[in-house]
Design brief:
Strand content: 5-15%
Largest sheet: 5 strands, parallel
Radius of gyration: 22 Å
Bound molecules: adenosine-5'-diphosphate, magnesium ion
Oligomer: single chain
Order of helices and strands: HHHEHEEEHHEHEHHEHHHHH
Helix content: 40-55%
């Protein structure tokens, strides 16, 4: 029974409707081939020997296509621990969000904040840098991940160059690999700097298309939807409909599958069908833009 579900999801499918929906709405990590490759790459960077020019990685993808979910998942799997031999705190991965504006001070503050050390508002950027370098060594940080890197690589050419230098400086001084995640704009800015372009490998989270990888994603997804019968998303041309409406974005795919499962549960159905898919209260990104234009 319910061989299409993970053991936990199987248990959840047997609960009452309210509890099933609560389980459904709890965020989960769904594995997919592209993510596995990027995770493998990040693991390689973490165990890279310390050299003068550490290799870095830029994860590029459209908004709502899984960048943040991926690096948060990686951070969670590499969480801080106390080392047995000397009782020292080891923080393998430090993940920060770039501040919304390309401002050096707030950028360093984000790092200090995540390091959980005092932030002194009058402190000069170079002093902040020195403290950051100290704590990175102290906590044995192996990887610095910066999400939303396009925030600090936007703005005037001057600001862009400033932050390209910040990245170079940190990468030289910390001697840890830096992983950045951002939209395509960030890729262009980094490519514009020959030195950085050389040291940044790129991994792209393409929007989803009708191929094996997409089917694999749907199969993996279905295993976490607490429905008692298999929907066979990939066999009943449901996949095509889901792909079309989602515009190939994993965030939209998640929304569509979540809404459909919720509706199925509420209607006393045990699988996702075309009828369910057609009845959910969902607007694709294009439709949302259109209705926004109509009212503005
Ligand atoms: N691997 C995954 N497993 C489950 N849900 C995911 C996964 N990747 C993305 N999502 C869903 O898609 C949404 C958007 O992804 P996110 O990582 O925030 O996109 P981005 O950072 O590229 O804008 C997330 O809030 C989550 O619901
Ligand atoms: Mg994000």
């Amino acid at each position: 029974m319910m061989k299409h579900l993970t053991p936990k999801t199987k248990e959840a499918a047997l609960l009452n409707n309210e509890e099933r929906i609560r389980y459904l709405l709890t965020p989960k990590w769904i594995q997919y081939p592209r993510a596995e490759k990027i995770i493998k790459k990040m693991e390689d960077l973490m165990s890279y020997p310390t050299i003068d020019r550490m290799p870095n990685l830029l994860i590029v993808g459209s908004t709502n296509n899984g960048k943040t979910a991926l690096i948060r998942h990686f951070e969670k799997n590499n969480s801080a621990y106390i080392r047995k031999d000397d009782d020292k705190l080891v923080v393998p991965v430090l993940l920060i969000q770039a501040p919304p504006e390309p401002d050096e001070r707030s950028f360093y503050n984000k790092i200090l904040e995540k390091l959980n050390v005092p932030i002194i508002s009058s402190e000069k950027p170079d002093s902040k840098q020195r403290r950051i370098i100290f704590f990175f060594k102290e906590m044995n940080i192996k990887l610095l991940i910066i999400d939303e890197i396009h925030h600090v690589l936007s703005g005037s050419g001057h600001k862009q160059r400033l932050f390209l230098n910040v990245l170079k400086y940190l990468s030289n001084e910390l001697k840890v690999s830096i992983v950045c995640a951002g939209i395509h704009d960030a890729f262009n800015v980094i490519q514009s700097d020959a030195q950085l372009a050389n040291r940044f490998d790129n991994k792209i989270l393409d929007t989803w298309v009708d191929n094996e990888d997409f089917y694999q994603l749907l199969i993996n997804f279905e295993a976490f939807l607490p429905l008692k019968e298999p929907s066979m998303l990939i066999e009943n041309s449901l996949a095509t409909k889901i792909l079309y409406r989602s515009e190939g974005l994993i965030g939209e795919i998640t929304t569509i599958l979540t809404l459909s499962t919720k509706l199925a549960i509420e209607k006393g159905k045990e699988k996702i069908t075309h009828q369910i898919l057609d009845s959910i209260d969902y607007k694709s990104p294009q439709d949302r833009k259109k209705s926004f234009r109509r009212f503005s």
